[in-house]
Design brief:
alpha/beta; 4 helices; disordered N terminus
């Protein structure tokens, strides 16, 4: 009898209250998962809009042989540098990675580099190419005009250190408008787009 009782007890069905509680817990878990998925999708959507709004253009001296350049240095007297210190560091690291991926070595400005590099952004009125005291646009730049370094625009300039002329420029509009991690991602995307158009 005891054995039969144990079997009967083991086969006891869960109560309606237990089923309702289990269903409620599962529903809450599902709602939590759905909210997380929606939040991720919303974040991806907003980021895609930002990337689509970002406009990147590149121009360079087509008569110049870029094979002659092997070293570069950051211009030390750039009054138009990116004002946000965190973004400036992010941009510098991303640009260094891109330059070195093209086979160029970073040196100090006192070591006679082939190129002088500046990254400008965050000012409203300053003309970007004047920051390093250069002559501005070099020959063969396809008619590029001096760009006003408007807020939200990042401009990367490369100057031939010997001739003191601008030989390459990348412009990324709508790149420095946001805050936090999103802005850092925008800078990274902009640099990638710029250096995809490096002269071959």
């Amino acid at each position: 009898m005891d054995s039969e009782a144990r079997v009967t007890s083991g086969d006891k069905k869960p109560s309606a209250e237990s089923c309702e509680r289990s269903s409620y817990v599962n529903t809450r878990k599902l709602e939590g998962s759905v909210k997380k998925i929606l939040a991720i999708l919303a974040s991806m959507f907003l980021m895609s809009i930002a990337v689509l709004a970002q406009q990147v253009s590149v121009n360079y001296n087509h008569s110049q042989s870029f094979a002659q350049y092997h070293t570069y240095a950051w211009g030390s007297q750039n009054q138009n540098q990116i004002q946000n210190s965190i973004l400036a560091q992010v941009a510098q690291q991303d640009i260094n990675n891109a330059m070195q991926a093209k086979g160029l070595q970073m040196v100090q400005e006192t070591q006679n580099p082939d190129l002088i590099l500046t990254a400008n952004g965050g000012l409203r009125q300053e003309t970007s190419y004047s920051a390093w005291g250069m002559r501005g646009i070099g020959g063969g730049m396809g008619g590029i005009t001096p760009e006003q370094n408007v807020e939200g625009t990042m401009i990367v300039d490369l100057y031939d250190a010997k001739s003191k002329s601008l030989v390459w420029r990348g412009i990324a509009q709508n790149t420095l408008n946001n805050n936090g991690n999103k802005n850092q991602q925008m800078v990274e995307k902009a640099v990638q787009k710029m250096f995809k158009q490096w002269p071959k």
